[in-house]
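Render this sequence as a predicted structure.
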Amino acid sequence: MTSRRHLIAGAASLAAPFLWNTSARAADPFPSRVITIVVPQAPGGANDVIGRALAQRLSAAIGSPVIVENRQGAGGNLGTAYVARQPKDGHTLLLNAQSVQTINPFLYRKVPFDPVKDFDPVMVVGVAPYMLAVNPSVPAKNLRELVALAKASPGKFNYASAGNGTVNHLLGEMLKNAAGIDIVHVPYRGAAAAATDVVAGQVPMTFGSLAGLMPFVRSGQLRALGACTEKRTQLAPDMPTLAETIPGLYANAWYGLFVPAGTPKDIVTKLNTEIIKLMDNPEMRERLVGLGVEAAPGTPDQLAMLLRDDLVRWSKIVKDSGAQLD
């Protein structure tokens, strides 16, 4: 198992240009058989829907079958570790959520993969912004007012999350530390249950995805206080970011494509090029918007740097929260 120090050190090395091993390249042209996109979450979630949309379009583009295989378990760790052990020939891809790749290595006592050494980045597929919302009964119209209320009543403001160690939970801990306020975490079994109790007024506030919370905001059942993004999201351009009030108060939530480390560079380049073409399709972008995901295709280097930065960021957040899972 890799230590936290080694993870962060390894992540820093991703900023350097990649060294690719082409000597192991098979003689057969790529692709020479079915390409499998492994989704380490259960069917039906955003990651799965994105994977299936990509598979259908990529298959048509390259003239080779592309399928999705769900390998859920252990918070995404099982499917992620499975891909790390596959042949380095581009026929097995990992479509992973940011939380598995950058939070799990610090959250779980034992993780069966190294997020840096075991994978080569292909590209970010999209960003799924999170937001902070409160019950309308809370007398705060913005983050500054919420912080003032929390400081006036330390230990009396609760926030609901999808469970210990989830992004929702850790965003609350990030706010707590950045704003210097004493708020209390209330874990639920899933984001939907957390949002339901905030709507009902049982808990005053929660962090959640735009896709999950915006319907309640539009209906007036919740009040949005800000997006947890570095810059304003195209999915809700009129919503201020939390970072506009407290600089640095943001966290990336993204979906990225990876291949086993050592996959030849030309294969990675071909996958990146073909998928960027697919992401430029208006129909594909609309499909992502429907999932609360903003298309953000880029280069392997860009994903490598994002991974590096997020490993450093989430390492501190998890440590400060004290969260840990077996």
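Summary. Confidence is low (pLDDT under 50) at residues 15-26. The chain has two domains: 4-128+253-321, 130-244.
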